[in-house]
Amino acid sequence: MNSQLRRLLTFAVAVLVVACARDGASPAFAHTDLVGAAPEAGEVVAGPPADLTLTFTDTLLPAGAQVLVRDERAVRVSGAVAVSGGQARVPLRGTARPGTYRVAYRVVASDGHAVTGSYRFRVVGTSASAARPAAATRDVADRAVVATAAGPPGGPSSSTWVVAGLGAVTLALVLGLGAARRRTSRDEEAR
Questions:
Q1: Does any domain span residue 152?
Q2: From CA 91, how far away is CA 88, in angstroms rounded?
Q3: Distance in angstroms (rounded) separating the CA atoms of residues 89 and 67
Q4: Domain co-membership, 55 together with 127
Q5: Same domain membership, residue 115 and residue 76
Q6: 149 to each of 63, 92, 126, how far by Cα in Å?
Q7: Are 139 and 175 contained in the same domain?
Q8: Which has the higher per-residue pLDDT, 108 or 135?
Q9: Which of 39, 43, 102, 191 has CA 20 to 30 A from 6's CA?
Q10: What residues does 110 pair with on adjacent strands?
Q11: Its pTM surpasses 0.85
């Protein structure tokens, strides 16, 4: 039994080392960031924009990309998402009405991590001049609509849970090996 525990412990430690090495070599902790948007957060646009473009620092995966734009009555005005490199673009229809539009997005970076966010922009009539407010307005409710499958922002990745689980198993095996050695020592002393 002692040799079985020792082999199991060696295997668990080897798996833990490989998992840690893989995690350290991968870009798993380098999430993509939104670096540009047209229209931007808080921007006041003179006239209806034809589309909305979000630009990120890393390449995006087309699967799972969502960009929703809604008017003040919560009517969706965005079309299907097109992803190219680090950009996600949606055509807009129905933005001729002046008002505030809410953007909510969920994209998946090439490293597999989902990124979510939301913001607002405003459309004014074509005769008004566009002005940019000092602070961008965030819309937390839209974040919940898009991020249902994303989990908490900044939460641990699945590989973090795997490494933590392997660490717990390794600790249990070390404690079990120690207990087995103590039993073996007592058994030998009893003889």
A1: no
A2: 10
A3: 8
A4: yes
A5: yes
A6: 13, 25, 39
A7: no
A8: 108
A9: 191
A10: none
A11: no
